[in-house]
TrEMBL record:
Its EC number is 3.1.22.1. Belongs to the DNase II family. GO terms for molecular function: deoxyribonuclease II activity. It catalyses: Endonucleolytic cleavage to nucleoside 3'-phosphates and 3'-phosphooligonucleotide end-products. The keyword Signal applies. It comes from Denticeps clupeoides (denticle herring). Residues 1-20 form the signal peptide. Keywords: Hydrolase, Signal. This is deoxyribonuclease II. One of its GO terms (biological process) is apoptotic DNA fragmentation.
Amino acid sequence: MDRHSTLSTGLFLMLPVILEVEVLKLKQMLSRISLVSVSLGISFFQNEISCLNEKGEHVDWFLIYKLPKFTSSGVGSGLNYMYTDAVVKSWVKSTYTVNSTEGALGRTFAQLYQGKGYMSNSTAYILYNDGPPELKYLMLFGHTKGALYFDKSQGFWISHTVPHFPPFPERGFDYPSSGRLYGQTALCITFKYQQLLQISQQLAYYNPRVYNCSMPAVFQADMVVLGKMCEGVTPIVHMNKNLEILVSAGGELFCNFAKSQLFDDDIYTGWVAQELGTDLLAETWQRFPYQLAPNCSLPKHVFNVQNVSLPGPVVFWSHNDHSKWCVSWKYGDGWACLGDLNREATQAKRGGGLLCTQNPAIYSGLRLAVGLYDGC
């Protein structure tokens, strides 16, 4: 069924919802992965679909922070970005622009685009965006943006905040002119196939607008939910939210918070902060008068980041930043989350999610980016 044209260990300490037996299973699985990789002397990613860095090398994950057009230092191109990954572990300013085929996004999507992966019967993909390229915006879907591309062995999941992106594969890789104005983020994670099966179930809660996809017959028995979304069928969920623990191909742990439109609450305040047991600093697109006030009534509080400061220094206000992320206010908690939803009343009524981790590089990079923030 194709629609080409339209359509770490710290994690275990702070999640009471995970039963002890499930924790043990995860630890045993990670141990087996480590032993196999050492005994065979192979890379997790060799000759497989994965996130790629700016040298075209396979990486477990990368994070880019696209800088807005207007910053404290003046008017820029709106195409420059900061980059970090599982090897670099700190922000560096990319020598490429975000629309370059030599940047991390360009090289990663090249596996689907230039590699003609979208025409293959042995690979599958979905592109989703509530503001898709070339099509009208609809609020019927979750406020979520991303891409999955995989085969029966491995693939990547990119969660990003860029409307009208990425293009239809037949058009080739590019970056929308509308995306230059605001700051944006994109998190790419490499996953083995079994984890992608879990992700497909989580996306049912997101209710993404899938505008382009291919789900060949070899995947249809496994990827039932993605197959239905590829056909334009709205998935049915039996709960209003769901939390899953995902393990990257390299063994990094991520909590995936997925909420449907039935969970009528701010995801940061009503769920994530309370579940992780940490006060959060949330950077979301703070547009007056739509933004929510800081929440100080629940056991764990959520404050709004008012401006962002990245190495350079590059400083910009939240209303110039379309990113959606949060970090623990307390350094010792060490949580960082990236995802889809703004702290706005209307978005409480839409699907979406967050990918959360205690990876020190991701946490420190985002925590140090926090400038001013409000409080109680």
